Amino acid sequence: MKLIRFGEPGREKPGAIDDWGVWRDLSGEIEDWAGPALAAATTARVRDLTVAKFPRVDPTTRLGPCVGGVGKIVCIGLNYAEHAAETGGKAPAEPVVFLKASAPTGPNDDVPLPRGSVKTDWEVELGVVIGKRAAYVEAAEALDHVAGYCVCNDLSERQWQLEGTGTWDKGKGCDGFGPIGPWLVTRDKVPDPHALRLWLAVNGERVQDSSTAHMIHKVPFLISYVSRFMSLSPGDVIMTGTPAGVGLGMKPPRFLKAGDLVTLGIDGLGEQRQRIVDSV
Questions:
Q1: What is the pLDDT of residue 3?
Q2: Residues contacting 163, CB < 8 A, separation 6+
Q3: What is the pTM of this model?
Q4: Distances from the Cα of 79 to the Cα of 154, 237, 243, angstroms
């Protein structure tokens, strides 16, 4: 299934897309696509409903983050060898793990440039949404803890991330730096998360174009690895890393400015469209 959340920020309702591509309002059946509702039993129950009988949603309605009540966004850095190389690094022997402090935003919401930013960058990534608590899980069992997958843009302010003191978090957690969606595709509809083409364009120019097949550390291992250090709860999101083609790796480097349009997508998981705007 393709699960959506629609409506004004903070007032999103849960929905789904039927077999004919029509948006449907499931708020009479589900409180939100968050927490316990992401469990396999709940999504299976909804899958057995005749979704086409539910009220239509105007497709011009704003889409919110495809997951509500996200507890934490866990990010994996340098998880594609070519991206590690373009940033001057080496492919890590173990996953690079950090947390993204920004709240998730809608897939097509404007992205405000942080005040004083001069090096805001883009990163298309596969998002893994947790549906069942995971703590010390084995890789062989890890996918049992997945609710589904989505498109993510791990926007980053490189100067703050890399050129100051401290951790990466300062450049990763700015407001608006966490678009997820447009929909959450349930795990049963993604037979192989490592066979998905992902891409990103800036002002119509394709700058990232790769496949999740090129991940260094695969999804089951990432879930298992992260769960050694922190438990993962339903609604948590793992951003699994970006391929080559970020602005930092260009020669000369290229970064986002107000007025730029960023579009990105992953096969089967939909597309995002964000306008970069000045902060208010």
A1: 97
A2: none
A3: 0.96
A4: 13, 16, 8
